[in-house]
Specification:
Length: 621
């Protein structure tokens, strides 16, 4: 049992300073139980400064303060128990939904074939298919060689130790939700100056909860937080009576422990939540936002609890090469580049209406929104009405439907005479800071289902010109403002064949094209994760021939027949050649003179759609 004299002063100071809880304790307990608490005239600093004598003279029961002032609450069916304390009951009432959104994303690290342990700590979802825990947790079942190679350990019988994470393990709840660990991606170096962090990769195809959003900034002292994890019996370091009082003699199950941040320096932090050994690897959650502010890694009961600051965890996650898509969260769960601001987009030329030439007959303007569509469009602050809705990127532009959170359309210029074939680089999808975050569907829409972030402007289409501008154009295509939810098979059949043929032909003949692409929005589109999923997409291709004449063709890809349930089971996709007039009728967009240049639009049969079987015939190149 630890000597009370070694208790961390900052933790007690935090408790004494919590006036609401201390008032409640004074009213609940008699003076002989906590005599020091009943002496209103004792100055806090004097009480803490002479605490050793105070303990001996008055029998101060610190555990009562901790048990009542910093409780540890059972979690059952992804909801936490109501605190006994009226103060904590009120504090957690307003943050209940934020905290309960995090609970399913935290699990217990289970071990198989280990000679000593059935489980070893806590882990939580930080990225797609990636969990985070402590270095000293991962070290129990994985070994990092001197060359940096990480492998699973073997037991004395030569069996390889295996690991999994169960996201339930709740008190008196039988249900389980277990995922297997495929490999350990990263273990930080040992040493007091190295953050105690490890990243685990889940086996491909395993159902995994969404990641916990990461705070964009370090947490401030005095912030109310909660630690979610699995406190284990720890009688070697902690008093039996104190553990019984706080944890009710029930250990190894999921709990939520509220408290406060007591110190923070941007690298590490301390908190006064009630934790035990099994909490290693637990997230420290800002109660107001539901975002992780730190990774709990150490603590001693009746002493300080330590965590790695979330910015340090982000830094390690960013530098790690083993993940397929590193999540750098701005607090909303979306993938963003923290360095990007509005200024980053200065100088983008965007879609050029005079790309074919400056004469009137070669001018190809952007489609025009209807009055109703302008109400729903995502507006860029500080812009004039004429271009208030146009997000310019390198060689292309996007106009967002803020209500539906995906574009009305995109527009790209393609110069076949200076196309660049870039090497495939690692990319990260971005949120555009020029419009409101809630007007663009981010990574939260695409996780753990069969939906792709479907490029409306393809990655290769705007990649032309000098090397710098070509690379910038490619990078710009990875914005959620250029994405629409599409099933994985959608991009791999006739639609892709059409796009490939177009780009190859432009390069072969040194031609230019302007291409408009977008979804067909319908009221009947089904809702999924707060976004209505389009059931059809369109494309209008405007070509400039070698004779300086313009030709226009339009296409429609339908998928309504294949949306059978929330998991988006698709069948065969078909691409139809149609008319600009028909696209205009379906989308309410005004394509202006393009309708006059499209022979199918001027035909009496403009409403007919013809199944496309040959891209060459359809494009006429």
């Amino acid at each position: 049992m630890p000597n009370k004299n070694t208790s961390n002063q900052s933790q007690l100071e935090s408790l004494f300073a919590d006036k609401e809880v201390m008032k409640e304790i004074r009213e609940k307990y008699s003076a002989n139980e906590i005599p020091s608490m009943s002496r209103e005239t004792i100055d806090l600093r004097e009480t803490l400064g002479s605490r050793s004598a105070q303990v001996q003279e008055t029998g101060l029961q610190e555990a009562i303060v901790l048990a009542f002032g910093r409780p540890s609450l059972f979690i059952q069916n992804n909801s936490f128990a109501t605190p006994e304390s009226t103060t904590w009951k009120q504090r957690l009432k307003s943050t209940k939904s934020q905290l309960e959104s995090v609970i399913p994303k935290v699990g217990r690290v289970e071990l198989f074939h280990h000679p000593d342990f059935e489980w070893v700590g806590t882990a939580w979802v930080i990225d797609e298919d990636v969990l985070v825990t402590n270095r000293h947790v991962a070290d129990v079942f994985a070994n990092k060689s001197s060359s940096g190679v990480i492998s699973f350990r073997t037991n004395p019988f030569g069996q390889q130790i295996a690991a999994a994470v169960d996201f339930r393990e709740e008190h008196q709840v039988v249900a389980e939700q277990t995922v297997e660990i495929e490999k350990v991606l990263f273990i930080s170096d040992f040493g007091s100056t190295s953050p105690d962090v490890a990243f685990l990769k889940v086996k491909t195809g395993r159902e995994l909860p969404d990641p916990i959003p990461l705070s964009a900034t370090s947490v401030a002292n005095g912030t109310i937080v909660s630690v979610i994890g699995y406190p284990a019996w720890d009688g070697r370091r902690n008093g039996m009576e104190e553990m019984r009082r706080i944890f009710g003699d029930v250990f190894n199950v999921k709990r939520l422990a509220p408290g406060f941040i007591t110190s923070s320096n941007g690298l590490r932090l301390t908190h006064d939540c009630s934790t035990l050994g099994g909490n290693s690897g637990s997230p420290i959650i800002d109660a107001d936002t539901g975002h992780a502010v730190g990774l709990h890694f150490a603590g001693r009961f009746l002493s300080a609890n330590h965590g790695v600051d979330v910015l340090e965890v982000k830094r390690l996650l960013r530098s790690m090469n083993g993940t397929s898509s590193v999540l750098l969260s701005g607090g909303d769960g979306a993938e963003i580049d923290e360095a990007r601001t509005v200024d980053f987009y200065e100088g983008r030329d965007g879609y050029r209406e005079n790309f074919f030439g400056t004469s009137a007959e070669l001018f190809v303007p952007l489609p025009q929104l209807s009055g109703t569509q302008m109400v729903d469009a995502a507006r860029i602050e500080g812009r004039s009405r004429e271009n208030a809705y146009v997000l310019d990127y390198e060689h292309f532009s996007s106009v967002m439907n803020g209500k539906r959170k995906i574009p009305f359309f995109t527009a790209v210029n393609i110069d076949g005479s200076s196309l660049v074939r870039p090497r495939r680089r690692r990319t990260t999808w971005q949120i555009d800071p020029r419009i409101d975050r809630d007007q663009q569907a981010g990574n939260e829409l695409y996780r753990h289902n069969r939906l792709d972030r479907g490029h409306l402007v393809r990655r290769l289409d705007p990649v032309w010109g000098e090397t710098d501008e070509a690379e910038l154009a490619e990078e710009d295509t990875f914005h959620y403002t250029n994405a629409a939810p599409q099933h994985a098979l959608l991009n791999q059949r006739d639609w892709l064949n059409l796009e490939d043929y177009l780009l190859d032909s432009l390069g072969e003949h040194d031609l230019k094209a302007s291409v408009f692409t977008g979804p067909v929005f319908q009221e009947s589109d089904r809702q999924y994760r707060d976004v209505q999923i389009p059931e059809a997409f369109w494309k209008v291709v405007v070509l400039l021939s070698q004779q300086n004449t313009i030709s226009v063709t339009a296409y429609l890809l339908g998928q309504a027949a294949f949306l059978t349930d929330i998991e988006f089971t698709f069948g065969e996709f078909k691409t139809f050649q149609t008319s600009v007039s028909k696209i205009s009728e379906m989308t309410e967009l005004d394509f202006g003179l393009l309708q006059d240049l499209d022979p199918r639009s001027t035909s009496e049969a403009f409403g007919e759609m013809v199944l496309m079987t040959n891209p060459a015939a359809a494009l006429g190149i």
